[in-house]
Amino acid sequence: MKLYGMLDSPYVRRVAISLDLLGVTFEHEPLSVFSSFDAFAQVNPVVKAPTLTLDDDTVLMDSTLIIDYFETLSAPAARLLPAQAQARSVALRTVGLGLAACEKAVQVVYEHNLRPSQKLHQPWVERITQQLLAACHELENQVAKAKPSLASEPDQAAVTTAVTWSFIQLMVPDVVKSGNFPILHTFTDELERTALFQRYPIV
Ligand SMILES: N[C@@H](CCC(=O)N[C@@H](CS)C(=O)NCC(=O)O)C(=O)O
């Protein structure tokens, strides 16, 4: 089983950390969807990171779907999302906010790094920046209220929150200022110090 994609992708990183937590053994191939487009296309013609190839050569993509597959294979007690409906809705809201924040941060990065500056569409930049900041504020409030598990075995809400925040601070620290999000900062700092997170460094 092989996980393709760079760990500076929050989607790849949340899969790697989740699989580790679930006790799944996998190989990691840090292939870039940009600098190794052709090599990536040999594995998955859609060129999306993360891509995960199963032992029977099935090619999976999309972090949530990959994690879902391995959650299904795991014993209920080992799963990273709670089974109980109310606790699950809280965790899913946290994960949803994290993923939305990642998506908007990726759009901001692509807008500035991939599009020629004379073709930048300012109203779109403003829209995605507003959405990114809204997702971060909602996530800050959500983590304050819901306190995803920070124990030695973090849950999916905790993993996605910390991976999201580290990615945002790496890629768009001038847009999302750390000082305005003290809870996310402290929460992530704690998880980034763990051996688990350090096995999958963002850079
Ligand atoms: N919803 C997807 C998003 C994955 C995604 O957009 N990954 C980026 C890398 S961070 C990618 O593949 N970019 C190349 C592209 O979209 O063409 C997931 O959760 O896996």
The domain count comes to 2
Number of strands: 4
By DSSP (H or I, 4+ residues per run), the number of helices equals 8
Distance between the termini: 23 Å
Mean pLDDT: 96
What is the H/E string? Answer: EHEHEEHHHHHH
Bound molecules: glutathione
CATH topology of the largest domain: Glutathione S-transferase Yfyf (Class Pi), Chain A, domain 2
How would you describe the oligomerization state of the chains in this entry?
A: single chain
Question: Rg, please?
Answer: 17 Å
The main sheet comes to: 4 strands, mixed
- The proportion of residues forming helix, as a percent range, comes to 55-70%
Q: Can you tell me the CATH architecture of the largest domain?
A: Up-down Bundle
Helix and strand composition category: mainly alpha
Residue runs with pLDDT of under 50 for 5 or more positions: none
Spatial strand order of the main sheet: 2-1-3-4
CATH class of the largest domain: Mainly Alpha
Q: What's the overall geometry?
A: globular
> Strand content of the residues, in percent?
5-15%
Q: Which tags fit this structure?
A:
4 strands; single chain; four-stranded mixed sheet; globular; 2 domains; 203 residues; Glutathione S-transferase Yfyf (Class Pi), Chain A, domain 2; Glutaredoxin; mainly alpha; binds glutathione
